[in-house]
Automatic annotation (TrEMBL):
Lineage: Bacteria, Bacillati, Actinomycetota, Actinomycetes, Streptosporangiales
UniProt-recorded Gene Ontology molecular function terms: ATP binding; dTMP kinase activity
One GO CC term, this protein: cytosol
Biased composition (Basic residues): 13-35
Location of the region described as Disordered in the Swiss-Prot/TrEMBL record: 1-41
UniProt entry tagged with the keyword Transferase: yes
Protein name: Thymidylate kinase
Originating organism: Spongiactinospora rosea
Pfam families: Thymidylate_kin (PF02223)
EC number: 2.7.4.9
């Protein structure tokens, strides 16, 4: 099945990831392979801090995981800033308020504009101060949700081509059955949450993973099956240890 292939697949990472895939308690690091340079490779942020993106389909536990990871890092003495997309800026709030009526290209452009403002006004300053920044959603969400909204991946990337890569992006995985059960418990679902099935989102995240891997992004897949939030955070911390954090 596509979801199982996404879970098993090792795709190219960047030079700081281990050269060979290995397993530890059900998670795996992403193997490194050299890839040809591409014209649309964005420059990384110049920073003293660590920038972490937490991604995955709706209902997988991104917000809970970001908060739990932040707690664990703070307990070890790190200064941590947690943020989300759409951002808390005026534009981000407008996107949240109009998401049911703003669609397609208009929404994709608004989300990209909010992302650039988010980086400039919140993420980059926190990183420059030496903080670890954890973002609940990043560009991967555009590569999935805007496709559910009818746009091709190349157009979405055109709007986001200058977005700097995170230090490490985590893709959380759970089964479609569990995702569907969690979404059914929500009192309200956004238009895009209701637009695609868990199976569709998992498949599109697989494609987003491959797309960004070809552009040198550091990424790791995290299997959340059978884990509580602390267990998921522990797996993320193990990957961060491999980066020397």
């Amino acid at each position: 099945m596509l979801a199982e292939r996404f879970l098993r697949q090792g795709l190219p990472g960047r030079r700081h990831l281990p050269a060979t895939a290995h397993r530890r308690g059900g998670h795996r690091a992403v193997p490194h392979h050299r890839t040809a340079p591409v014209a649309d490779h964005p420059a990384p942020l110049m920073t003293n801090g660590l920038f972490i993106a937490v991604e995955g389909p709706n209902g997988v536990g991104k917000t809970t995981t970001a908060a739990r990871l932040a707690d664990r890092l703070r307990a070890s003495g790190s200064a941590v800033h947690v943020t989300t997309e759409p951002s808390g800026t005026a534009l981000g709030k407008l996107i949240r308020a109009t998401e049911s009526s703003l669609t397609g290209r208009a929404l994709a452009l608004a989300v990209a504009a909010d992302r650039y403002a988010h980086i400039e006004t919140e993420i980059a300053p926190a990183l420059a101060a030496g903080m670890t920044v954890i973002s609940d959603r990043y560009v991967q969400s555009s590569l999935v949700l805007q496709r559910l909204d009818g746009l091709p991946v190349r157009e979405i990337w055109h709007y986001n081509a200058h977005v700097p890569p995170a230090s490490l992006s985590f893709y959380l995985y759970h089964t479609p059955q569990v995702l569907r059960q969690r979404l059914d418990l929500r009192a309200r679902r956004s238009r895009l949450e209701a637009a695609g099935s868990p199976e569709q989102e998992i498949a599109l995240y697989e494609e987003a993973f491959a797309f960004l891997a070809a552009r040198g992004w550091r990424q790791a897949l995290i299997n959340c099956r059978g884990l509580d939030p602390d267990g998921v955070a522990t797996r993320l911390l193990r990957h961060l240890e491999q980066l020397g954090t």
